[in-house]
Amino acid sequence: MSEGYITVAREDEIAPGEVAVVEAGSRSLCVGHAADGTWGAIDNVCTHDGGTLGEGELDGRAVECPRHGARFDLRTGEVLALPAVHPVNAYPVRIVDGRVEVKVDVPTPELEIG
Fold first, then answer.
1. What pTM was estimated for this model as a whole?
2. Structural domain tally of the chain?
3. Which CATH number belongs to the domain containing residue 86 in this structure?
């Protein structure tokens, strides 16, 4: 770990257009690789009813919860579609030598769930 980043996967383990559940320290995250090549990481729990976001679908940069279809921006955690009304935390992601690294010491932006 350097500068607060934790390696969570190899770059080739998450194909473009896919999301995956990963563990970063004590956090469960949904990490995604958008088809446009960008990466993002958000908390793995839907704020609507606790669905596992990393088991959902990725459409562009929108992660859709498999339970009721709430959608969240993979990069910011912003709610994009109901029934969720509260955002999820988003975390910086970087790729270093084929490793996917997430900075989990402070979510960015800092969002309060509740």
1. 0.89
2. 1
3. 2.102.10.10
